[in-house]
Amino acid sequence: MRLLTVADIALFLAEKAAAAIHFDANWDARYRAVTRTAMADAEHLLADRANFGEVGCDNYPELAKSIPILNVPSVAYYRDGKLVGALSARPRMCDSTWSVSSVATRFSN
């Protein structure tokens, strides 16, 4: 995943029709391994169709606030530069929701 800054976002979203941005924070490591693994696996499978990036909420809180995420870690999904959905990690979701197939299905259409 590419580390993104506020200045990078517009170009990042324009490079491919689909994009996923992982929002994370240094202070919340509880689900980090699960979400980062799922995103890395999805990127490996879908790199030809979608961009995968990461934003550190500690460094860019204004960017994180502009996306309707409930907590971190979260992923925002974009199609043609427009936000189409967001998924936040929650305790009961980490085993089933954060899998390669769940991330990949966001780009199946």
- Fraction of residues in helix: 25-40%
| Biggest beta sheet attributes | 5 strands, mixed
Question: How would the global form be characterised?
Answer: globular
CATH structural class:
Alpha Beta
CATH architecture: 3-Layer(aba) Sandwich
Structure description:
The structure is a single chain. The protein has 109 residues and is of the alpha/beta class. The protein has a single domain, classed as Glutaredoxin (3-Layer(aba) Sandwich). It contains four helices and five strands; from the N terminus they run βαβαβαββα. Strands 1-3-2-4-5 form a five-stranded mixed beta sheet, with helices on both faces. The protein is globular, with a radius of gyration of 13 Å. The relative contact order is 0.23. About 6% of the residues have low confidence.
Produce a short descriptive summary:
With 109 residues, the protein is of the alpha/beta class.
Supply database-style keywords.
Glutaredoxin, alpha/beta, 109 residues, 5-stranded mixed β-sheet, 27% strand
Helices and strands in order, then pairings?
Layout: E1 2-3, H1 9-15, E2 18-24, H2 32-46, E3 50-56, H3 61-65, E4 74-79, E5 82-88, H4 100-105
Parallel strand pairs: 1-3, 2-3
Antiparallel strand pairs: 2-4, 4-5
